[in-house]
Amino acid sequence: MENEETLIRDFDSNLICDYFGRLERQGPGSPESTIRALSFIDNFSNELKIADFACGTGGQTMTLAQNTKGTITGLDIFPDFIGKFNTNAEKLGLQNRVKGIVGSMDNLPFQNEEFDVIWSEGAIANIGFEKGLNYWKGFLKKDGYIAVTYESWFTDERPTEIEKFWVDAVPEIGTIGHNISIMQKAGYSLVAAFTLPEKCWTDTYFIPQKAIQKTFLKKNAGNKAAEAFVEYMKYEAELYSKYKQYYGYVFYIGKKI
Ligand code: SAM
């Protein structure tokens, strides 16, 4: 790459929003995996108060809403995503139960013990797995649930190329066993942990990106940072197909003790 951007967070937020705002999901995941994680939550047919941190444009939030009763507050740092989130909620007739607000996951505008369930897909690394689990616990009722997906190693050893990519992006990245022990130390009992299937990366993440890259580049013609951003995303996809046996997203579901 010609310029200095080497991590997704180094890119301009307008570019990130322009690119990912074109997609239904901003990270790997699927309705099936969201529903599977939800199935581990006792009483999920009751009226629950749910928070979805780093909700993006709300792909997983709308699935949650369609499969639960009660209310959901989505929170994301980018106003652009929250605008699309609230439009999506309205389109699906969910606006009375689902509301998106702008905010940061490390400075939450909520009351202590406000939620039955805290959800977060593909984003806890932004605050740090351990820090997020500890901080967010304060906003959960006793016996409340947390369900997060987090980048995880599947093996103890990895080839250098993939090790470097993920340690640069997520310095704390660890194995599944390590992450479960962090969750337990943070004061949750483990309810379930399962690996997101490959199609959560291909069908809902990489393939939809391929479809929008051309129009994104056309709109941002001549913008070197936009070109570098697409190259970075293509490199992430290449690495996945080469090294997917070494890492992936794991859904961790815990219950506050
Ligand atoms: N949960 C969505 C999904 O799975 O499609 C989005 C996941 S995307 C990989 C990460 C999200 O984290 C983006 O929507 C981004 O705007 C959001 N984000 C990053 N830092 C954040 C912060 N400090 N507070 C809230 N949201 C943040």
Low-confidence runs of at least 5 consecutive residues:
none
Strand content: 15-25%
Order of helices and strands: HHEHEHEEHEHEHEHHE
Structural class: alpha/beta
Bound ligands, named by name, code or SMILES: S-adenosylmethionine
Radius of gyration: 18 Å
Mean model confidence by pLDDT:
95
Number of helices: 9
CATH superfamily: Vaccinia Virus protein VP39
Q: Sheet bearing the most strands, described?
A: 8 strands, mixed
> What does the overall shape look like?
globular
CATH architecture: 3-Layer(aba) Sandwich
User: Structurally, how many domains make up the residues?
Assistant: 1
In helices, the fraction of residues equals 40-55%
| Number of E-state strands | 8
How far from one another are the termini?
A: 47 Å
Describe what you observe in this structure.
The protein has 257 residues and is α/β, with parallel strands linked by helices. The protein has one domain (26-197, 244-256): 3-Layer(aba) Sandwich (Rossmann fold). Helix content is 42%, strand content 23%. Helix 2 packs across helix 3 (59-66) and helix 8 packs antiparallel against helix 9. The chain is globular. The N and C termini lie far apart (47 Å). The protein binds S-adenosylmethionine. Residues 25-27, 29, 54-56, 59-60, 76-78, 81, 104-106, 121-123, 126 line the site of S-adenosylmethionine (SAM).
